[in-house]
């Protein structure tokens, strides 16, 4: 049991985290609890880098500091603009 400053004690086990939140929650190696109000399951296809929610990404997606990911391919440019745009080989 843990009674660390919360209104009531609660049973914790090795899979639970009680790090300053209102309640404990079960976590495992697939979950991230890095300062957000709740944990969520993540896997190798997900990015949770400072955004309010995780999102699935794959090798065709870019998540570089934008609010959301977007699918890109070899015909698209995402160089610091708010959104990607399709370019063709005639565009310099």
Proportion of helical residues = under 10%
Largest sheet: 2 strands, antiparallel
Amount of beta strand: 15-25%
The count of DSSP E runs of length 2 or more, i.e. the number of strands, is 10
- Overall, the morphology is elongated
The stretches of 5 or more residues where confidence is low (pLDDT under 50) are none
Radius of gyration: 20 Å
H and E order: EEEEEEEEEE
How many domains, as an integer? 2
In DSSP terms, counting alpha (H) and pi (I) runs of 4 or more, how many helices?
Answer: 0
Straight-line N-to-C gap: 64 Å
Mean of residue pLDDT values: 53
Explain the overall architecture.
With 92 residues, the protein is mostly beta strands. It folds into 2 domains: 1-41, no CATH class; 44-92, no CATH class. The chain has no helices and 10 strands. It has strands spanning 16-17, 25-26, 31-32, 40-41, 46-47, 55-56, 61-62, 70-71, 76-77, 85-86. The strands form 5 sheets. Strands 1-2 form a two-stranded antiparallel ribbon. It starts with 15 loop residues before the first strand and ends in a 6-residue tail after the last strand. The mean pLDDT is 53.
Helices and strands in order:
Blueprint: E1 16-17, E2 25-26, E3 31-32, E4 40-41, E5 46-47, E6 55-56, E7 61-62, E8 70-71, E9 76-77, E10 85-86
Antiparallel strand pairs: 1-2, 3-4, 5-6, 7-8, 9-10
